[in-house]
Amino acid sequence: MTAPTSPEREAHPLAHPADARRVLRLSLRAPRAHVPKGLVVVVPGYLSNRDRYFHPLLEERLAAHGFAVLCVGLSGSGYGDDGRLSELEAFAHNTYAWELEDVHRTLVWARGRPDLAGLPLGLFGHSRGAAMALVAAAEDRAGAAASSARPVSAVVLWAPPSRVGRYRPERLAEWRATGRLPVELGDGRVVHLTRDALDGFEPLPPRLDLLAAARRLDAPTLLVAGARDRAVAPGEVAELAGALPWAEVCTVARAGHNFGAREHPPFPVDERLQTALGATVGWFERHLGP
């Protein structure tokens, strides 16, 4: 089987009311010919977007099973309207706080759209996006008591880290000393992250304590881990699972951080990605379906 390249989507760019650098790009795909059984909001990870790795195939699978899918193009991801890394100033200034604001703005937008409002709501995230999905889901459910909005009802996190700011000690030391951190992109360009991001997690705000957020998240949560993930060790996933009140872990044999997906679709899909996708669709069908 081969991953698709460009499923049909509606594009919804949302300018930030106070910062012209930041454009939140939402991409909606709904199942054809019937009312969706639920809405899944997808938060990509660092240096990724809706067109990379497994995201097109994830959208296709969820839509085929009757879900509407809303992919979040984070305003500080660096990706522009053309899907390329062209908004490097926003990328250089991006923070965890920006990303959490973007996820919450996405939920507000979805709840304000008549064809999506009231649908059972799921949240998916990968890697750094999984960290943001975790915190946003916990905050969303905590706020539901004071609101008539339907809260996030199910969560799936692929390769979720147990803490933010996961940089090597020598890189952090350089960042603290110079106020800049060089990041080499895949095409050889170098972007210097500003001090904004560093100051956003040093010292660690209580909001970004992922284990504390996990303890507050009372929605059913599936953690999908690659047994050979070198970026997020299975031990981190187990730590999160131990903190979550309602969690299951799916460990995919021989899988790394992206579960066999290549950066640019189309690509052959093997059993590693099939396992992760099947577990994900099954979880949302179990907890969002009728």
Descriptive report:
With 290 residues, the protein is of the alpha/beta class. The protein has two domains: 238 residues, Alpha/Beta hydrolase fold, catalytic domain (Rossmann fold, 3-Layer(aba) Sandwich); 39 residues, no CATH class. Helix content is 35%, strand content 20%. The strands form two sheets. It has an eight-stranded mixed sheet, sandwiched between helices. Strands 7-8 form a two-stranded antiparallel ribbon. The longest helix is centred in the last third of the chain and has 18 residues. The N terminus is likely disordered.
The CATH fourth-level homologous superfamily of the largest domain: Alpha/Beta hydrolase fold, catalytic domain
Termini separation = 29 Å
How many DSSP E strands? 10
Q: Any idea what the CATH architecture of the largest domain is?
A: 3-Layer(aba) Sandwich
CATH level-1 class of the largest domain:
Alpha Beta
How big is the Rg?
18 Å
H/E element sequence: EEEHEHHEHEHEEHHEHEH
